[in-house]
Amino acid sequence: MANELLNIISSLWVIFSFSFLVALTGAMAPGPLLTYTIIKSVQSGKRGYLMGLWIIIGHAILEIVIIIFLLLGFSFVLQNIIVVRTIGIAGGALLIYFGLSIIRNVHKNNIPTYFLNSFNKSDHALQKHTHSSPKTNKALDNPIVGGIMVSMSNPYWWVWWATIGFAFMIQFDISFSNWPKLLAFFIGHEAGDLAWYLFVSILSFFGLRYFNKKVYCGILVCCGIFMILFGIYMGISPFLRDL
């Protein structure tokens, strides 16, 4: 009995560990969610270092949905070339829009900068600027909603789940009936994402906030350009290969 329990725990730990490492490796690759996390962490108030947590909560909600759909047998849909190309075009267009919005707001000086060097300001002044600062993009103000939207806009995310993610689930026999394995897989995956993005938000919050306005605007423009280029690439790439 003890050996059987030990084997179960060992099996679940293996699934958790592999899921964590695979997710961490994927999360560390540059992408729109990373750019969004950096921007939200720097622009937020006193708790901007927690932006990574809220963003990954939104990201995790979306991943719960896609895991359920994959287990229900919808993986073939995401492997269809027409579906992949449609997702690529729609997601790429949305990423381009996000990038253009960032650059446009910088050009129009419609970005909040109250947080720059905010550690040298009084709490009263910081709160005053917080209420008067313009918002960069109303659709992405909420980090949980933003985590969902930005993740959905990334065609690579869909393809990853239809290939690597689903292959992992098959390899380790992840299913509804074997819910302990499903739970270990899901928790491990989200823990890997959270570990990286929480680190990024903490680093951004306590580091980039010391920059002056010109440097900050330059970083925003670079982030915007990256999103545009990434969107163009993701929109075109499905047409350059066959699944």
Describe this structure in words.
The protein has 243 residues and is an all-alpha fold. The chain is built from ten helices and no strands. The chain has helices at 2-27, 32-43, 51-71, 75-78, 81-107, 123-132, 143-153, 155-171, 179-207, 213-236. The longest helix is centred in the last third of the chain and has 29 residues, at 179-207. The termini are far apart.
Give me the secondary-structure topology.
Blueprint: H1 2-27, H2 32-43, H3 51-71, H4 75-78, H5 81-107, H6 123-132, H7 143-153, H8 155-171, H9 179-207, H10 213-236
Helix pairs in contact: 1-9, 2-7, 2-9, 3-7, 3-9, 5-8, 5-10
Which features characterize this protein?
0% strand; mainly alpha
Helical residue percent?
over 70%
Number of helices: 10
List SSEs in N-to-C order: HHHHHHHHHH
Strand content: under 5%
- Main pleated sheet: none
Give Rg in angstroms: 20 Å
Number of domains: 1
Low-confidence stretches: 118-136
Question: What number is the mean pLDDT?
Answer: 79
Structural class given helices, strands, pairing?
Answer: mainly alpha
Compute the separation of the termini in Å: 46 Å
- Count of extended strands: 0
Q: What would the principal axes of the Cα set say about the shape?
A: globular
Short description:
By secondary structure, this protein is an all-alpha fold. Helices cover 74% and strands 0% of the residues.
